[in-house]
Amino acid sequence: MQNLAAWPKRDDLYSYLDNLLLKNIEQNPRIAVFILNLDNFRELCELFGYRNIEEYLAQVGKIIRDACPINSYAAWLGSDEFAVVIPETTTEQAQLTAAKICQNVTQPIVFYERRTYITVSIGYVVAPEDAHDRYEMLKNATIAMNWVKKHGKNGFTRYEPTMSEQVNRKLTLVNDFSVALADNQFFLQYQPQVNVSTGAIIGAEALLRWHHPRLGLIPPLEFIPLAEETGYIHSIGEWVLRNACRDFSSWLKAGLMLERLAVNVSIIQLQKHDFAQRLLKILDEAELDPAYLELEITEGQTIDLPQVRPQIEQLRNHGVRFAIDDFGTGFASLNHLRYMGFDTIKIDKAYIHNIITNNRDQVIVNSIMNMATLLQLGLIAEGVETYDQWQYIRQTSIKEVQGYYCSPPVDKEKFELLAAGESCR
Ligand code: C2E
Ligand code: CA
Ligand code: CA
Questions:
Q1: Which of 82, 110, 304, 393 falls 20 to 30 Å from 35 in CA-CA distance?
Q2: Is 409 in the pocket of ligand 1 (CB under 6 A)?
Q3: Could you give the CA distance from residue 258 to residue 155 in angstroms, rounded to a whole number?
């Protein structure tokens, strides 16, 4: 088997592609370029203690090359990344080759008497349709490869222009975060939390909005994950807390009878060692009793709770409460949550959506209610949209709801008017 050191490298690939493009100007056949990246490479390195890993890669490289047409050119780009060029091909052959590489790599590989399993993510372009020069070929094939990584790995896909649009939009948003904070492009809306037996508004959940000057309103579900990935969540999250506490404090001072300000926080924010301290300062500056504040953490992030327990404890000691959001979508056990210091469960809107007709959802909501009662946890039902759902919840032990039936999230001024009214329903 050929040693990895003897494989063509990135520079060799560049010259090969440049030559190929020069030669092909007149004949203009299709060229396919693949970027291949192994999926669970780091685990393998750990398995072999980083010894002999190049030997292993050479074995995978051979499997890749053997799955390609005889006229293909293969290069090793370093670490667990390879490239393959088929100089004269068709779109069908390119696709079949990608499928064959995936299939062959997935077979168990015996290495030093050990059976190992590895998979590969492949992105490819077919030129001239998908790319015009060497730069575009590699860039677009890499974009397609990353798309596969993000959508489950172990597979292949051909580049599509919409993938670039997505990447560009993501880059734009990330670039614009810091300006957005400085230019006040963020604003908050508040959704009423309503007592189901009286119809009174008892609290507000702060929901973040971004009005981008060029792209318009960006949904939080699009930009929050990017802010988490890039670390901007710390400054944006602090902005949310500061403004929500100020608004809420002014409502109390104006005489509104409210019990709770709910604010969403990402577990990444809690990972900062001074999160609790900074939040207590914000509360102090806003002259807001910490007992009004309830921080919501989505169930999907509760796996990392043990690491942030000291922050949670410090805040709880000052009276701040914690709610588990979107309950029923992740894997947290209620008992574990009680132990971690949660006070409230927010039942995910997916369960409320079909609560009237779906027996299974009724059973799940019932068992959440029973557990919550036993563990003395508060319950809020989210996403109540219809009169029937409202009536159904009224018959249960759930005391509070949020949803379009009462009110969608509204601007600060509108919330004040709603909360000053007699009841929401
Ligand atoms: P979430 O915390 O579960 O917020 C509830 C979402 O449900 C909000 O979407 C709200 O507009 C929507 N909603 C309210 N009532 C109804 C209803 O009756 N039916 C339906 N179908 N939807 C309803 P939104 O504002 O788009 O927020 C989406 C998510 O973004 C939030 O989900 C939360 O996870 C996240 N998010 C929002 N603001 C912040 C923030 O300041 N910090 C963090 N970390 N996350 C935030
Ligand atoms: Ca929430
Ligand atoms: Ca929720």
A1: 110
A2: yes
A3: 52
Looking at the chain, the whole-number percentage of residues with pLDDT higher than 90 is: 82
Ligand 2 centroid to Cα of residue 180, in Å, is 22
- Please name which ligand lies nearest the alpha carbon of 327: 3
Q: Is the CB of 102 under 6 A from ligand 1?
A: no
Mean pLDDT of 61-89: 95
Q: 170-420: same fold as 10-159? A: no
Query: DSSP for 285-303?
Result: HHT--GGGEEEEEEGGGGG
Q: Which residue has the tokens 């579900």?
A: 221
* Architecture of the domain whose range is 170-420: Alpha-Beta Barrel (3.20)
- In short, whether 220's Cβ falls inside 6 Å of ligand 1 is yes
Instruction: Write down the domain spans for the chain.
Output: 10-159, 170-420
Question: Is the model's pTM score more than 0.85?
Answer: no
Q: Specify the DSSP class assigned to residue 39.
A: S
Ligand nearest to the CA of 386: 1
| pLDDT category of residue 282 using cuts at 50, 70 and 90 | very high
Give yes or no for residue 187 CB within 6 A of ligand 1: no
Q: Is 227 in the pocket of ligand 1 (CB under 6 A)?
A: no
User: What proportion of the chain, given as a percentage, has pLDDT over 70?
Assistant: 98
Whether residue 221 has its Cβ less than 6 Å from ligand 1: yes
Q: Which residues contact 411 (CB under 8 A, 6 or more apart)?
A: 187, 189, 190
Which of 194, 205, 207 to probe ligand 1 with, by most ligand atoms within 8 A of CB? Answer: 207
192 CA to centre of own chain: 26
Q: Which ligand is nearest to the CA of 220?
A: 1
CATH T-level fold of 10-159:
Alpha-Beta Plaits (3.30.70)
Cα radius of gyration (the chain)? 28
